[in-house]
Amino acid sequence: MTHLKGRQRLLALGGLFLVVLAVFVGWSVMSKPAAQAQGAKRTRIVFWHEMTGPAQQQLDTFVKDFNHSQHKYEVVPEFEGNYNEAVQKIINTHGTDASPAVFQSMDISTSQIHHTGYTTPVQKFIDADHYNVNQIAAGARAFYANKGTQLSMPFNTSQPVLYYNETLLKKYHITPPPVNPSYSDITRVATQLMDRSHKQVQGMTVEIYGWLFEQFMANAGVSLANHQDGHAGTPTAVNFTSPSTLTTMKWIQDNLKRGDFVNYGAGANAQNNETASFLSGRLGMFLQSSASIGQLTTGNHDQLGITYYPHPDGQKSNGVAIGGASLWISNDKSAHVQRGAWDFIKYLMTAKSQAQWQVATGYLALNQGSQKEAVLQKLYQKLPATKVPGEQLRAATPNATNSGIFLQGLIQERNLTQTAMEQIYNGSDIKKSLETAEKSMNSYIQGNNRANGY
Amino acid sequence: MIQTKTLKPLRYLVLILLAIVILGPFILGFWTSLLPTADIAKGALWSSHISFANYAEAVKQTAILRYLLNSFVISTLTMAAQLLFCSLGAYAFVFLSFKGRDLLFYLILATMMLPFEAEVIPNFATVRRLNLLNHYGVMVIPFLTSAFGIFMLRQAFRQIPPELKEAADVEGLNHWQFYWRVTLPYARISLFTLAAYSFLESWNQYLWPMLTTFSDKFRPVQDGLRQLQSQETFNNWGMIQASAVIVVVPTLIVLFVGQHYFKNGLNEGATK
């Protein structure tokens, strides 16, 4: 018994020793850059972002290169977790030592961040520098602008697109969908896949995701919120029941009933499951962000096809809004620090940086000059399909319905439309479900507007 | 006698089944940490590329070792502080008699009824004003003592025979000497239990550090782990799983060392 105890103790001690060792290795590895930073007298520019994986690596490289390229500023990147958490952190730390000088915040937080009054619109620096904003994609700029003022700089920008498994379609002798497909084009491919594979392959899925719901409306040219989706003034009501929205939902519901569409549910699990099914050749098509390209091409032996977001039959596609996030400059820091933040943003937006960004991450290069950069040309040659999301972005002329929704309660809106989608997918009455969601959203907006005194 | 003999295999069968149910996810987790991410994404359980590459990647690409260090520092400080302050508090409630002693004790107990999550907003506002955000202090200072620790040690100290205190008084030991030389050694097992408990409690914190840390320099493991999941894009599942395994190891060590005391200690107050 005592012998055993001794061995146990030895094991435990050994384990503990290993942990302590690991910890000290970690300390020495991590504290090196900090020591270097203290050497030079540079202004610290704290940069909060929400990028992980390849995007984080690329961003860190950009920061390093920027810090080497000049001697005035030292950008310090700090990772803040997911978009929703980051918004709260940004708002709640404003004015403290911990707050960032420049930060990345998601698309749908635009109105919220702007209304806090905690930021300096980048327009101020654009004017001061006579910076040529026309080199940045107009569709992306429009999303983060309000009444002619550029509030923040679009950064990581994705487009919702339709992915299909080209190898699979070839196997069953199915003509791929056109590059700008209508609903019936998609129905055709989905039905053929289902029939010719004898139900081995599921045709298509549309995730229960408010973002996709918004994009269907954008692509049909319908406003979700009044006052031109909030671009002309604070919205007072939403419209979830326009004819095209009803058509879209009916299209999905009918196909689900017939069995050539499949429902993977909502949330991160749905995304993981549909990706897994797609990669293993059990799902033919699905709608997702263009930022998924990386995951869909690494280690995938099947050829990947990409088309524009589908649009209703009998009309031209209006174009979809971008997804992703933009860069903001906080106004609780000194003018010098804000200047440094702007210089860093400019560095990220150069044609060269943007081309590199698209190659590394799958987010779109926003600088028009990037298309001529060698790294991007090489990517297009290797995977021609990766051209499609950028073409979709440039094909659309920005207008009030495809430049995002300038509304404060978008997270609430997504929850409500997702509930409605869930009901519809399970066979409930389309109009009734959407009306319920619309009613709740309208009372939410009224309450919010009253509370803020709009 | 015969009955127990026939029952024995049956009992082991049930235990084995339970062990499979409980260990299954751990084994699966460990196994997937060895697979390449491309295979995990496809839902494959078997791959020809079993390797420790994910671990190498986790250590190289993420700040997981730094997270471990942070958690280690925070947990150790919290544990040491709780041992000191809880034992001092408990000592006062057992060996000192003063007016309103019981009332004060019940007041402290009452704070146990209020979950920490309910106090998050005022606590956040306080540390924000103190300018403690994004610092080790923010994760240690609010947890310097705990009502549970005081309660547990009070129960343990009450088991010390009153004769010992009387004898100590006769010997002329003052309170500090009695506390240090008699009380603490006597309640050693309870102290070990509290140490393991407070260490793990601090190690497993998630909500508070998420709200109050903003850089890898101070972020503890649980939050670090959560942050490895990507935004919108590619999730490197193999690497995330490898990091999860790395994070679990210290917890297992503490449990391994402490389980002997855990069994005795946690029941101590309950049966008395």
TrEMBL record, chain A:
<keyword id="KW-0813">Transport</keyword>
<dbReference type="GO" id="GO:0030313">
    <property type="term" value="C:cell envelope"/>
</dbReference>
<dbReference type="Pfam" id="PF13416">
    <property type="entry name" value="SBP_bac_8"/>
</dbReference>
<dbReference type="InterPro" id="IPR006061">
    <property type="entry name" value="SBP_1_CS"/>
</dbReference>
<dbReference type="InterPro" id="IPR050490">
    <property type="entry name" value="Bact_solute-bd_prot1"/>
</dbReference>
<keyword id="KW-0574">Periplasm</keyword>
<protein>
    <submittedName>
        <fullName>ABC transporter substrate-binding protein</fullName>
    </submittedName>
</protein>
<comment type="similarity">
    <text>Belongs to the bacterial solute-binding protein 1 family.</text>
</comment>
<keyword id="KW-0732">Signal</keyword>
<dbReference type="GO" id="GO:0055085">
    <property type="term" value="P:transmembrane transport"/>
</dbReference>
<dbReference type="InterPro" id="IPR006059">
    <property type="entry name" value="SBP"/>
</dbReference>
UniProtKB/TrEMBL annotation, chain B:
<feature type="transmembrane region" description="Helical">
    <location>
        <begin position="237"/>
        <end position="257"/>
    </location>
</feature>
<dbReference type="InterPro" id="IPR000515">
    <property type="entry name" value="MetI-like"/>
</dbReference>
<feature type="domain" description="ABC transmembrane type-1">
    <location>
        <begin position="68"/>
        <end position="258"/>
    </location>
</feature>
<feature type="transmembrane region" description="Helical">
    <location>
        <begin position="136"/>
        <end position="157"/>
    </location>
</feature>
<protein>
    <submittedName>
        <fullName>Carbohydrate ABC transporter permease</fullName>
    </submittedName>
</protein>
<keyword id="KW-1003">Cell membrane</keyword>
<comment type="similarity">
    <text>Belongs to the binding-protein-dependent transport system permease family.</text>
</comment>
<dbReference type="Pfam" id="PF00528">
    <property type="entry name" value="BPD_transp_1"/>
</dbReference>
<dbReference type="InterPro" id="IPR035906">
    <property type="entry name" value="MetI-like_sf"/>
</dbReference>
<keyword id="KW-0812">Transmembrane</keyword>
<feature type="transmembrane region" description="Helical">
    <location>
        <begin position="178"/>
        <end position="200"/>
    </location>
</feature>
<feature type="transmembrane region" description="Helical">
    <location>
        <begin position="72"/>
        <end position="96"/>
    </location>
</feature>
<dbReference type="GO" id="GO:0005886">
    <property type="term" value="C:plasma membrane"/>
</dbReference>
<keyword id="KW-0813">Transport</keyword>
<feature type="transmembrane region" description="Helical">
    <location>
        <begin position="103"/>
        <end position="124"/>
    </location>
</feature>
<keyword id="KW-1133">Transmembrane helix</keyword>
<dbReference type="GO" id="GO:0055085">
    <property type="term" value="P:transmembrane transport"/>
</dbReference>
<feature type="transmembrane region" description="Helical">
    <location>
        <begin position="12"/>
        <end position="31"/>
    </location>
</feature>
<keyword id="KW-0472">Membrane</keyword>
